[in-house]
Amino acid sequence: MQERLHLNHHPGTNPPTFTSKIIDKIDESIILDTSYFYPRGGGQPGDIGVISDGDLSVDVGEVFAKDLIFHPVNDIDCFELGTILQCNINSENRNKLARMHTAQHIVSAMADELWNASTVGNQLGTQESRIDLLFDDKSKFSIEHIQNAVNEILGQPIPVRTHNWSADEIMTDERVRNRSFVGKILERLPEDITTMRVVEIQGIDICPCAGTHVANISELPQMEIVRTKQKGSGKIRLYTQLKNDNE
Ligand SMILES: [Zn+2]
After folding, report:
1. How far is the CA of 173 from the centre of ligand 1 (A)?
2. Of 1, 23, 150, 177, which sits with the fewest C-beta atoms within 10 Å of its C-beta?
3. Which domains can be identified in the chain, with CATH numbers?
4. How many angstroms is it from 81 CA to the middle of ligand 1?
5. Could you count the other beta carbons within 10 Å of the beta carbon of residue 116?
6. pLDDT profile of the chain (247 residues), mean per 10
C-alpha cells in the first residue's frame, strides 16, 4: 500500500525532502513506496520536482494518480527497481499553487456569502486561476464587490487548519457550504474511506478538500480578478491572479 503523505502534511507549503524506494515502474512513471508529491486533482496541478540516487538526478513531470501515485520521468530505465531515492518537490511551484488554492477557497466563500453562488469548477495555476460560479441571478454579480470582499480578508492573521471528519460530521455542520453538492461527492467515495480531510479557514470557510494550502491567511497577497467570461445560463468564469505571484 503506497502512502500519500501530502494529506498528512499541513501546511501544504515548503514540502519536505524525503527518501523513498522504487517499488514499480509503470509506463513512463516511477512508483514510490511513499510520496509527498501532490497528484493533480480537484483543479490543482500535480507537483513537479527532482529525484536522485545520489549520482544521477532526474526531473519529475507533473505527478498524477490513478490507484497509485505516478511520478513521470523522461527515461524510465534510469533507475533500478528497489533503488532508494532522494526526492525533492519544487517548492516554489507548490507554494504558488498553495497560495492560489487557499485564495480560491476565500473567493468561493465570498461568492456564497454575497450571492449564494456555488463554485462548480476551478482550475488553478501558478500565474492565473479560473473559478466557475453558478448563480440564481447572475445580474447581481460585480467584480469590484467580490474582489473587495476577498481582499479585506487576504493578509489577515487567520489560521488555516485541517481536520479528518466522517461524512456525517461534514453533512451536519451548518458551516459547510453547498452541502447538496458536497453530499454528491461523498456518495461517490469508496466504502473503505470513512473520513475526509476538511480544511477550515477560521471563521471564513470550512469544506472537504485534499489540496494544499498555506498555514495562515497572512501569507496571502492581494488578489485581482483580471477578467470574466459568461459561461451560459447562470454561470460566470472568473480569472484571478495574486499580486507578486503573477510573474
Ligand atoms: Zn482546498
Report:
1. 18
2. 1
3. 3-89 (2.40.30.130), 94-242 (3.30.980.10)
4. 34
5. 14
6. 76 94 96 95 96 96 95 95 98 97 97 95 96 95 97 98 92 88 81 87 94 97 97 94 79
Cell of 221: 497577497
Expressed in angstroms and rounded, the spacing between residue 166 Cα and the centre of ligand 1 is: 17
Q: At a CB cut-off of 8 Å and minimum separation 6, what does 184 contact?
A: none
- Between CA 99 and CA 18 the distance in angstroms is 22
Single-letter code of the amino acid located at 16? P
Most distant CA pair in the chain, distance: 60
Angstrom distance (rounded) from CA 139 to CA 233: 11
E-state strands within 43-108 = 49-52, 57-60, 64-65, 69-72, 84-89
Cα-to-centroid distance, 199 and ligand 1 (Å) = 7
Query: In angstroms, what is the span from residue 17 Cα to ligand 1's centroid?
Result: 22
CA–centroid distance, residue 150 to ligand 1 (Å): 16
pTM over 0.85: yes
